[in-house]
Automatic annotation (TrEMBL):
Residues 7-256 form the ABC transporter domain. One of its GO terms (molecular function) is ATP binding. The gene is livG. This is Branched-chain amino acid transport ATP-binding protein LivG. Keywords: ATP-binding, Nucleotide-binding, Plasmid, Transport. CDD domains: ABC_Mj1267_LivG_branched. Belongs to the ABC transporter superfamily. PANTHER family: CONSERVED COMPONENT OF ABC TRANSPORTER FOR NATURAL AMINO ACIDS, CONSERVED COMPONENT OF ABC TRANSPORTER FOR NATURAL AMINO ACIDS-RELATED.
Length: 256
């Protein structure tokens, strides 16, 4: 991990009326790193994500992606760039389309200017579809969804749909992905698959991650560094096992 961090967030603050949801929080993610963001409910994690990814505009502070100041950019503009993507706690897939079609559509949205340019008639259109299909199939295998690739996404479990969503996010080859509670509401077997998929994307595809997660076992197994928020402020930052052993974290997050 050399050079500038892929993501630099400096002194972000956000208030809603008299409530200060995030107060002067700074955080960075190095290239090739999986960083964790933890804290009790109401600590400001999701607001911090929203301000970092254009869903909300911060009151103060700056966000730099790959050295470029993107403070105030809209969520759509940041996503359209394809370099930084984020997930939400609610899983969203095209339920009537099969797994492979979900990924192809996701790739088309970032790669080509219109549906017509991808799915129109002609040699160029066929080449585009072929390229998207090849990448989609690679990612489907990575996510362990090969046997269900032609099933409608709506027929699959919630955990499998999370894997579809995650694989779809990899279609435009992003540099960093922000994941908001990727393990929430899925069974242990699927959690193992999600972990394997994140690690594969990080090690083999070079994708950096910032992950909000309540499952401490997951945090300690995949994250190289962890930042803890409490009451909208950064409480502590460090190596996962040091963070878990920190008395301040136990009081704020783990209940002592």
């Amino acid at each position: 991990m050399t050079g500038l961090p892929i993501l630099e967030i400096d002194k972000i603050s956000k208030s809603y009326g008299a409530v200060k949801a995030v107060s002067d929080v700074s955080l960075h993610v190095n290239r090739g790193e999986i960083a964790g963001l933890i804290g009790p409910n109401g600590s400001g994690k999701s607001t911090f994500f929203d301000c970092s990814t254009g869903l909300q505009r911060p009151d103060t502070g700056t966000v730099k992606l790959d050295g470029q100041d993107i403070t105030g950019w809209s969520l759509n503009r940041i996503a359209r760039e394809g370099r930084m993507l984020r997930s939400f706690q609610k899983t969203v897939v095209f339920k009537a389309l099969d797994v492979e079609e979900n990924l192809i559509i996701a790739g088309q949205m970032f790669t080509f200017p219109s549906l017509l340019s991808t799915f129109g008639i002609g040699r160029m259109s066929k080449q585009r579809i072929s390229g998207l299909r090849d990448r989609a199939r690679e990612l489907i295998k990575m996510a362990g969804l090969w046997d269900v690739r032609h099933q409608p996404a709506g027929n699959l479990s919630g955990g499998q749909q999370k894997l579809i969503q995650f694989a779809s996010m990899l279609m435009p080859e992003p540099k960093i992905i922000l994941l908001d509670e990727p393990m929430a509401g899925i069974n242990p077997k699927i959690i193992e698959r999600v972990i394997e998929t994140i690690l594969y994307a990080n090690r083999s595809l070079g994708v950096s991650f910032l992950v909000i997660e309540h499952n401490i076992d997951v945090v300690t197994s995949i994250c190289q560094r962890v930042v803890v928020l409490d009451q909208g402020k950064k409480l502590v930052e460090g190596l996962p096992h040091d963070i878990i052993a920190d008395e301040r974290v136990r009081e704020a997050y783990l209940g002592g």
